[in-house]
UniProtKB/TrEMBL annotation, chain A:
ABC transmembrane type-1 domain mapped to chain residues: 131-340
Protein name: Glutathione transport system permease protein GsiC
Keywords, ordered alphabetically: Cell membrane, Membrane, Transmembrane, Transmembrane helix, Transport
GO cellular component annotations of the record: plasma membrane
A single GO molecular function term of this UniProt record: dipeptide transmembrane transporter activity
Residue ranges of coiled coil: none
Source organism (scientific name): Streptomyces jeddahensis
Compartments in which it is found: Cell membrane
Chain spans, region Disordered: 1-23
SUPFAM superfamilies reported in the protein's UniProt record: MetI-like
Entry membrane topology: Multi-pass membrane protein
Encoding gene, per UniProt annotation: gsiC_3
TrEMBL record, chain B:
Any one of the GO BP annotations: peptide transport
Keywords recorded for this protein, A-Z: Signal
4Fe-4S recorded as keyword: no
Residues annotated as signal peptide: 1-21
Annotated protein name in UniProt: Glutathione-binding protein GsiB
InterPro entries noted in UniProt: Peptide/Ni-bd, SBP_5, SBP_5_dom
Origin species: Streptomyces jeddahensis
SUPFAM superfamilies: Periplasmic binding protein-like II
Domain annotation Solute-binding protein family: ranges: 88-456
Alphabetized Pfam families for the sequence: SBP_bac_5 (PF00496)
One cellular component (GO) term of this entry: periplasmic space
Keyword flag Oxidoreductase: no
């Protein structure tokens, strides 16, 4: 699991601007619709298409730069020259790389991502089966991280210098430093073998059996969410400390608001902008695959799909998966930017903030 | 570098003494002898979940290439012939062993009259012919090489098949006891064509229901199966769980009932669990160390000259081999749970060439040093050893590094990811690498492709007319005693080249929960679930 820990230094009282990315040249902006929200979305959509195109090129070329090809990885120990040649011909691996790319894009635009060279299953099926697993795992671990992280962060900030803060800090440090592989195995030993409350592995769709689904998803969500909870806790704490010392908090207290209203309604709400930024970035990581967590709990999600595709040089699957995760990344970033304006009405979309 | 080697030797020595003590410990932690079957009575019903160490490839017997895939086929695709507990070929869909004409070029057999494919159609001679020709001719077929000697196949009656061979081909029966002998439903082949892999239909105790890539393959009992009375389970689920620790944890929690291909380390911990039982059978394969003696242009190309002491002079390679202690490797790296080996043909094979583990050369550093001196090479002789990224291979690499260092070799290890390793060794871009083979029933399947000049998997660039001749003779000799003599001679000849240094033979370890009975694990390493179920 790779959790990039954002810098903990609290931002200034002024919340970050929504439009952090450079816009397109002015000429393009002129033709944008008048509705600032629509114009903003349109501009972001254009950028997304370019990003997706670049990603597809990089992935396509990148996996082909690795030694070995699907034919070889597939043939494994039983390779014979005739079989290798036949497999290469079947997947068009002998063609010029530009032609191969053109074929891939032409098919991808019609929604056909090809078939896996290893299993012969359609890539879109593999993605459709892995996506619910990954989304649920991401959502549950996010929930775990938000509840634990924000709760502990607020407590740590409000009870600054007291034992509660030390405890919260200690837990956060533990969450960050314990390797997820170890944590996963220990949780399985404790809660699936010694006290069999949860299952050790596998995935059952929520629609099939909600209870069994949760029985299998709780432990992975805790493992995956623990690192994130720590990051969220530290971010919340820092932002809360900042907010609590701001003038408007003193004003709020002076006008006689209850402690709960001051902390919940004013301090926390202002702190959430930073936290949401962090969550958005981290959610991207969760979607692109919690490889280790999926490995321990044998969950057929995106992480496992990606890693297997790299090792078996399953070009079609890897390309499909990376395209999907890139699209998800872009979408999440967009949602995060929209979320800013909901949390903090001072942030205006489009040109207003500039 | 030197200090590392000394330290490693120390580690090896410490480990070996503790491993030595290990064998004196209580019997609860002992593996014991071979255990291939469990004959307790079984009740009907239930689902069995089998964890495999990788996701199988295509479920098409013509295209399939993985060992885990063969295990899944064992549940749903029967073959013309099968192997029994003793490693003997026995009829499965065929009614008797094949009859071969005196000139060895015509083979006839008949097939069962009561077998139906999972799609309900009947098995007959025409279906067998369709499958055999597809195995041989389908582009990309992994069976094409082993069925190349097959000239024609015809149905001479509703259930009688006649095969004509281009030349006598003794390994044929053993070949028909593997995927080449699997018969696919002609109707399913016609309906699905290349997409048969997603709708496989054969004769088998269980039939295919669904596959979710990377997650599971589900089979259910086939009521139309000719021996359905002996099948007890309702359902079998195969799940890929690559990590051994995770497989063991799932066995203990009861989420899976059978763990396939367990490593010695996992087996050691499984032995202490009262609710688990262990099956083990000797393997047909081998594991060794391949040296590049002439692979300059890649697989299938004419071997050339490589100007390194190791490739130039067999004495240097002999010294390398003499510096290695096979018994110690088995003790230290594999907890003493595999077998030392010094030949390509397992004692479990249909032909026993009589080169057993006890005849492996002992480690002799003095002699190794003398050979290096006689060859007049400058020591230390440097070489790079490519190993895969598994913990077992990296430990094995370290032990070989430490052992050969004492004789005057300077081995550097390079862990290499699997597909990259294949590419590099195929193209001849290596000095030495850990080279293994899962094994075939007939000795030909364990020798020809690897040792024959320009053989399909001769990554070593080995080329010796005497070896080529012995391989051809082994293939056509019908008399078992004479065949055993030929393969014995072949083994000695190959060992004299020191290009492929055979080190050890794995064992197939399968761990199951105690309440699972009726399981079979034979020398081919496949988990046979046909008669399995929950103990009564």
């Amino acid at each position: 699991m790779t959790l990039t820990q954002p810098a903990e230094s609290a931002p200034s009282a002024e919340p970050p601007k929504a439009t952090r990315r450079p816009g397109l040249p002015a000429a393009l902006k002129l033709r944008a619709p008048r509705n600032p929200m629509a114009a903003y979305l349109l501009r972001r959509l254009r950028q997304s298409v370019i990003t997706l195109f670049l990603v597809s090129v990089v992935v396509f070329a990148g996996i082909r730069a690795l030694p070995g090809d699907p034919a070889l990885a597939l043939a494994g120990e039983e390779r014979s020259p005739e079989a290798l040649a036949a497999i290469r011909a079947e997947y068009g691996l002998d063609d010029n790389i530009v032609i191969q790319y053109g074929r891939f894009i032409a098919h991808a635009l019609t929604g056909d991502l090809g078939t896996s060279s290893r299993t012969g299953l359609p890539v879109s099926d593999a993605i459709a089966e892995a996506l619910p697993v990954t989304l649920e795992l991401a959502a549950l671990s996010l929930l775990f991280a938000v509840v634990l992280g924000i709760g502990a962060g607020v407590v740590a900030a409000v009870r600054r210098g007291r034992p509660e803060e030390w405890l919260a800090n200690a837990v956060a440090l533990l969450g960050l430093s314990v390797p997820s592989f170890w944590l996963g195995i220990v949780l399985v030993l404790a809660f699936a073998i010694a006290f069999p409350v949860f299952a050790a592995s596998g995935y059952v769709p929520f629609g099939t059996d909600p209870l069994d689904n949760l029985r299998r998803m709780v432990l992975p969500a805790v493992v995956l969410g623990s690192g994130l909870a720590a990051v969220v806790m530290r971010q919340t704490r820092a932002a809360m400390l900042d907010s609590l010392s701001a003038d408007y908090i003193r004003t709020a207290r002076a006008k006689g608001l209850s402690r709960r209203e001051v902390i919940g309604g004013h301090a926390l709400r202002n702190s959430l902008v930073t936290v949401v930024t962090v969550l958005g970035l981290q959610l991207g990581h969760l979607i692109s695959g919690a490889v280790v967590t999926e490995q321990i709990f044998v969950l057929p999600g995106f992480g496992k799909l990606t890693i297997d595709a790299v090792f078996t040089r399953d070009y079609a699957t890897l390309q499909g998966v990376v395209l999907c995760t890139s699209a998800a990344y872009i979408l999440i970033n967009l949602l995060v930017d929209v979320a800013y304006s909901v949390i903090d009405p001072r942030i205006r979309l489009g040109g207003a903030a500039r | 570098m030197r200090r590392t080697a000394v330290a490693l030797t120390a580690v090896v020595l410490v480990l070996s003494t503790t491993a030595g003590c290990g064998s004196l410990q209580s019997s609860a932690t002992e593996v014991g002898g071979e255990r291939m079957a469990d004959d307790r009575p079984v009740r009907d019903g239930g689902t069995l979940t089998v964890a495999l160490n990788a996701d199988p490839d295509k479920l098409d017997p013509s295209l399939a290439q993985t060992l885990v895939g063969r295990t899944v086929f064992a549940g749903m695709c029967e073959k013309l012939y099968d192997v029994d507990q003793k490693g003997t070929v026995v009829p499965q869909l065929a009614t008797a062993l094949p009859k071969t004409s005196p000139d060895g070029r015509t083979v006839t057999f008949s097939v069962r009259k009561d077998a139906r494919f999972s799609d309900g159609t009947k098995l007959d001679a025409a279906a067998v012919v369709t499958s055999l020709l597809r195995h041989r001719d389908l582009p990309g077929s992994a069976r094409a090489t082993e069925l190349a000697p097959l000239d024609s196949a015809v149905a001479t009656g509703p259930y009688e098949v006649k095969l004509t061979l281009k030349q006598p081909y003794v390994p044929l029966t053993a070949v028909l006891a593997d995927r080449s002998g699997m018969v696919m439903s002609p109707k399913a082949l016609k309906t699905y064509g290349k997409n048969f892999t997603n709708h496989p239909s054969c004769v088998g105790p269980f039939r295919f229901v669904e596959r979710v890539g990377g997650d599971r393959i589900v089979l259910v009992k086939d009521p139309k199966y000719y021996d359905a009375g002996d099948v007890h389970l309702d359902k079998v689920v195969y799940r890929p769980i690559p990590d051994g620790n995770v497989r063991l944890a799932n066995l203990r929690s009861g989420d899976i009932q059978i763990g396939d291909q367990m490593t010695p380390v996992d087996v050691r911990s499984a032995l202490t669990e009262p609710e688990l039982q262990l099956f083990n059978s000797p393997s047909l394969g081998y594991q060794g160390l391949g040296l590049n003696v002439g692979n300059v242009k890649g697989l299938g190309e004419k071997p050339g000259r490589i100007d390194t002491p190791l490739a130039r002079d067999a004495r240097v390679r002999a010294a390398f081999e003499l510096a290695i202690d096979r018994r110690l490797i088995n003790k230290v790296v594999f907890q003493g749970m595999y077998e030392p080996a010094c030949g390509p043909i397992s004692p479990e094979s249909t032909i026993a060439p009589g080169v057993t583990a006890s005849q492996c050369p002992e480690r002799d550093v003095t002699e190794a040093k003398r050979l290096l001196k006689e060859a007049g090479v400058k020591t230390p002789v440097r070489l790079e050893l490519k190993v895969s990224t598994t913990p077992e291979h990296s430990r094995l690499g370290q032990v070989v590094q430490a052992m050969t260092n004492e004789a005057g070799f300077d081995v550097s290890l390079r862990p290499t990811e699997y597909a990259t390793l294949l590419e590099e060794t195929d193209s001849g871009d290596y000095d030495a690498y850990l080279s293994g083979w899962s094994g075939r029933l007939d000795p030909d399947g364990n020798t020809a492709s690897f040792l024959k000049t320009q053989g399909a998997m001769n990554t070593y660039g080995l080329s010796d007319p005497k070896i080529d001749d012995l391989i051809d003779r082994g293939r056509t000799e019908a008399d078992p005693a004479e065949r055993a003599r030929i393969y014995g001679e072949l083994t000695r000849r190959v060992n004299d080249q020191h290009a492929l240094i055979y080190l050890y033979r794995q064992k197939n370890y399968v761990v199951a929960r105690k309440d699972v009975a009726g399981l079979r694990v034979y020398g081919d390493g496949l988990v046979r679930v046909k008669n399995a179920g929950y103990a009564r």
